[in-house]
């Protein structure tokens, strides 16, 4: 540093330090009594709180103190497949475990209750819709399940142990079928098939699951698939003719006569030559003319 600056600094320190040490108590008291200017400016900009404004009361409907929300914030509860695929449950059991239900489904003789199902987050868990069908006595006659999974092996093992389903020959390639056959009819059936597009980021939707279980002794069975319609290459055969019935021409086809009624040039020359010869020779016995078919009018 330059010499004049150093001399000025030493002189200032020699005068200022003793003053601060001597009057330190007075300086601290003055600092505490007067806050900084920035604080005073900030406090002056804050508006005072409003007073005298009445608050509106919150209107509540009857039962709000019992049911604060229509659905839990944590989502749908998870239930294992062994707990829900049972025939010994009641409507009250279903109502107490799911917050949202769909009732009155398309079964004339049964009362259906459909609920959302999430059995967990594992690769063998199933997510979809589960439907219970109750008879007039309140018993479960049928259970239907439609959903997605990443690995159906655990569900297949449960159905084989509990309901006796066995592997069957599928009608569609790439499909796995398990059935329980009783009295020559399919009582329960499970179908699993691979989705047409598989994503590595969503493995839980790799397989689609369709399950129908009927209670043994209920007299209900899995409905057979709809019959396949005949293609254009196999037209329907005509019905057999009844006694005394004549075959009819199929519609849309033209009818042609057996012989043409317009004489050709060869026929005209033949008739002229036959006329010249008849003047010289006696005419033979006249034959009956042939009956020609005519064009339809």
Care to give the gist of this entry?
This protein is α+β, with helices and mostly antiparallel strands and 297 residues long. The chain has 7 helices and 8 strands.
Would you mind describing this structure in some detail?
This protein has helices at residues 3-22, 24-33, 37-45, 81-84, 91-95, 153-163, 265-280; strands spanning 102-103, 111-118, 126-134, 140-149, 166-168, 175-182, 185-194, 207-214. With 297 residues, the protein is α+β, with helices and mostly antiparallel strands. It contains seven helices and eight strands, in the order H-H-H-H-H-E-E-E-E-H-E-E-E-E-H. It has an eight-stranded antiparallel beta sheet.
Strand and helix layout:
Blueprint: H1 3-22, H2 24-33, H3 37-45, H4 81-84, H5 91-95, E1 102-103, E2 111-118, E3 126-134, E4 140-149, H6 153-163, E5 166-168, E6 175-182, E7 185-194, E8 207-214, H7 265-280
Antiparallel strand pairs: 1-2, 2-3, 3-4, 4-8, 5-6, 6-7, 7-8
What distinguishing features does this structure have?
single chain, 297 residues, alpha+beta, eight-stranded antiparallel beta sheet, 7 helices, 20% strand
Distance between the termini: 133 Å
Quaternary: single chain
Task: Report the β-strand fraction as a percent range.
Answer: 15-25%
Instruction: Provide the succession of SSEs.
Output: HHHHHEEEEHEEEEH
Rg, nearest Å: 50 Å
Largest sheet strand order: 1-2-3-4-8-7-6-5
Q: Would you identify the regions where 5 or more consecutive residues have pLDDT less than 50?
A: 38-43
- The chain-level mean pLDDT equals 75
In terms of structural class, how would the helical and strand content be classed?
A: alpha+beta
- Count of alpha/pi helices: 7
